[in-house]
Amino acid sequence: MLTIDRATRDAIVAHARRDHPDEACGVVAGPVGSDRPQRFVPMLNAAMSPTFYEFDSGDLLRLYREMDDNDEEPVVVYHSHTATEAYPSRTDINLASEPNAHYVLVSTRDGAEVDGAPIDFRSYRIVDGVVTEEEVTVVDGYADGSTPEQQKAES
């Protein structure tokens, strides 16, 4: 199950809407081993495509160095689908290289790029080519009562 705070979920959705009609992509980093998405990192879709996303290799290298320096890992890897449902494509499955990450897909099809329209926000685990959908719980803070900002200040 993915537990994600409302502000981060809303930021992912806003990024997907903003980049439509191209696919949006990014990462939400968190402390190693915590399974807690904490630091929202929107990325540039280097492919600039409505049907494919690709992280810029330089940006991705910088992000992984930052995560290493901060004892973080990618907790969520997200991207949008602009014309199809929020389900991993064959390409998405083949590119999934983080076995501990939650792969979040947001669909901006059917007018979902407009604020107020229903949005399809789903999460999957993808390990060795096997896709398993998981429940998404959106919270105003974490189970210990803290907010993402409090967790970041304590780090």
Walk me through this protein's architecture.
- The protein is α/β, with parallel strands linked by helices and 155 residues long.
- It has a single domain, classed as Cytidine Deaminase, domain 2.
- Helix content is 26%, strand content 32%.
- The protein is built from four helices and eight strands, in the order βαββαβαββββα.
- The protein has a six-stranded mixed sheet. A two-stranded parallel sheet has the order 1-8.
- β4, α3 (90-95) and β5 form a beta-alpha-beta unit.
- The two termini are 24 Å apart.
- The mean pLDDT is 89.
Morphology: globular
CATH superfamily: Cytidine Deaminase, domain 2
Overall radius of gyration: 15 Å
- What number is the mean pLDDT? 89
Work out the helix count: 4
| Amount of helix | 25-40%
Number of beta strands: 8
The termini sit apart by: 24 Å
**What is the number of independent domains?**
1
Name the CATH architecture: 3-Layer(aba) Sandwich
**The CATH top-level class label:** Alpha Beta
What's the CATH topology name? Cytidine Deaminase, domain 2
SSE map:
Layout lengths: L1 E4 H14 L5 E7 L7 E5 L13 H13 L2 E10 L8 H6 L6 E6 L12 E8 L2 E5 L1 E4 L8 H7 L1
Parallel strand pairs: 1-8, 4-5
Antiparallel strand pairs: 2-3, 2-4, 5-6, 6-7
